[in-house]
Structure formats: C-alpha cells, structure tokens
Design brief:
Elements (H helix, E strand, L loop, with lengths): L19 H17 L14 E6 L5 H12 L3 E6 L11 H10 L4 E6 L4 H6 L5 E7 L5 H15 L6 E5 L6 H12 L3 E5 L15 E3 L2 H5 L4 E4 L15 H8 L3 H4 L7 E3 L12 H4 L6 H27 L1
Parallel strand pairs: 1-2, 1-3, 3-4, 5-6, 5-8, 6-7, 8-9
Helix pairs in contact: 1-5, 1-11, 2-11, 5-6, 5-11
C-alpha cells in the first residue's frame, strides 16, 4: 500500500530530525523511483526546470555521482562545484557561498562538509532546499536511507531485525544516521568496535554495545561494516591495521558462525584486508553493489520530496 503521509520539509539535514512516518515516506517514494532504473529510458520529468548544485567541501565518489545521476534522471539541471577551484579558497564563508549560489536561482543545494552542523547552518540562511550529503562526524542521512532501503528490499522488513554496525563508530556519520533511522523503524541495533572507537553516549541512543565481534555477529540479520578511518588517528591510539583485522575483521571464517543468510553491507570505500576480507566483500552474502544502485532511487526520492515541499512553502 502506498504511503500517503505528506512530506513537508524543504530540507533533509539528518535522520535524528525525522519522524518514523517521514522516513517511511522517503523509502516508499524510493520504491517508486527504483522502477525507473529498470526502464530502457531511465528518466522522468519530475524536476524538469529545477537546478541542483552539488557543493562538496570533502572528496566523494559514490555520493556525489549518485546525486548527480539521481538529479539527471529526474530531468534536473546539475552543477558540480569543487571547493578546491572556487572562491572558498579565497576565504569566502559558507553562508556567502550559499547565498551567491542561491542568487543564481538554484533550487536545491546538496552539500558535503567537514564540519558537523554545516548543513543545518546553511539551511537556516538560504531559501533553497539543502540536502546533507555528510557533515563532519554528525550524519550522512541518504547513506543510512539507502542502507535501510536495501535491508527492507532483501529481508522484507525493518521492524524486529537485528543489525550490527562494526568498525570506526566514533568518527562515523554513517553509523549515527543508521542508528537514528533503524531504531525509529523498530530494528535492534548493536555496535561493535575497540573501546576507544565507541563514544560513551552510544548506549544512550537505545542500542547495544559490545567489544566482541563474534557476539555482534551472533543472531544478526545484517552486519554493516564501516571503514576504519586511520587518517584520524592523531594520538596513534588505534589498533594497527593487521591487529584490527585479526580481532574485528569480517572474514569467511567469522561469517560461518553467523546466520547462513546474514546480509553484509559496507558504505564504501572498502579497505580490503583491514575491515573486511575480499572473500566476504565479493561473496554471496554481500549487497555492497546493490547499495550503490539503490542509492540512486533513494536520492531521487529525497530530491523529489524536498523540491515538492519547497514549492508548497513558496505558495
């Protein structure tokens, strides 16, 4: 049955700020757009005449390209701005950049930024819709949405599922968005990592914390494997790469002890032989490439919904 809940937000800033009904609205809309990706002509006129700007202050491959493909399949015009070659390098502030982009009559700004809360600040200062494509260690809402969409597609539901998130929890905006989204839709979430990589506030988010990878995999319906962000190890406190893989790596041997049909996910980029073995990443339990495909439908849904809501607000 179609989700009749009316979306009213002009921005998508994080799953912490969405209700269960709003998350379900995005997922149900994504189901409709997934069908578009199976057509010979993968295009609909939903955003014809609209302009989408991808404003990325951090490197990105999957997310930026996914948003670009999604916008073009909705018939929008797309502009990609690299801050390395923009006025940002001359000292222009985020707000001034946003206002200048908006002055060009842009409708949607998709932004990735290295500071937590940057998307919220921009949204408060422009009339265009703002979509958070990852801000610091805060949130990455569309990644979590495509993760949930993939889980629901593969397993038929989210409520009651046991989902374990393994890896660099402390620095992961993906983990935070997944926790907010999954718990609101009734899933049971467990996080697993070395102690120094699990912030104390995690348990307050209504999830289970463990430092034992076998415990995390036991009875899990899905495991979402996060990239180890060794570049953030300023105090040289992280386990060494080989040590981490030996203790927490998702291997064929570890997976053999889990449910036979456990779903293996990863937001990318993958560090093979560090957080996951190639056997598992390329194995039958892996849905990593399906996540990438589903990201297009989910981002089409988000672009469509925020644009529609902003039109209503203007009226």
């Amino acid at each position: 049955m179609a989700n009749k809940f009316v979306w009213t937000k002009k921005d998508l800033l994080g799953l912490e700020y969405l209700s269960k009904q709003e998350i379900e609205r995005i997922l149900s809309t994504a189901e409709s757009f997934k069908e578009v990706t199976t057509r010979e002509i993968k295009k609909v006129p939903s955003l014809r005449g609209k302009t989408v700007v991808n404003l990325f202050y951090e490197p990105s491959t999957r997310t930026r390209i996914s948003f670009e493909v999604a916008a073009k399949r909705l018939s929008a015009d797309v502009i990609n701005i690299s801050t390395e070659t923009s006025s940002v390098k001359k000292g222009e502030t985020l707000i001034d950049t946003g206002k200048n982009i908006e002055a060009l009559k842009v409708d949607i700004i998709v932004m990735r930024h290295n500071y937590s809360g940057a998307a919220i600040m921009l949204a408060r200062n422009v009339h265009a819709s703002v979509i958070n494509a990852g801000d610091g260690w805060h949130e990455h809402p569309t990644q979590a949405l495509l993760d949930m969409f993939t889980l629901k597609e593969k397993l038929g539901r989210l409520e009651g599922l046991n989902v374990s998130i393994v890896g660099d929890i402390a620095h992961s905006r993906v983990a935070r968005s997944n926790i907010w989204g999954l718990t609101k839709l009734g899933a049971n979430v467990t996080v697993c990592a070395p102690k120094m990589l699990i912030p104390a506030e995690m348990e307050k988010m209504g999830i289970k914390v463990t430092y034992d990878i076998d415990e995390a995999l036991h009875n899990a319906d899905a495991v979402n494997v996060l990239r180890m962000q060794f570049e953030r190890d300023e105090k040289n406190a992280f386990p060494k790469q080989l040590e981490y893989f030996k203790t927490f790596g998702i291997t064929k041997e570890r997976l053999a002890k889990a449910k036979k049909d456990i779903i293996v996910m990863h937001p990318g980029p993958i560090n093979r032989g560090i957080e996951i073995s190639s056997e598992v990443a390329d194995g039958t339990n892996s849905v990593i490439l399906e996540q990438v495909t589903n990201g297009i439908a989910v981002r089409m849904a988000v672009l469509f919904l925020v644009a529609q809501a902003n039109e209503s607000i203007k009226k």
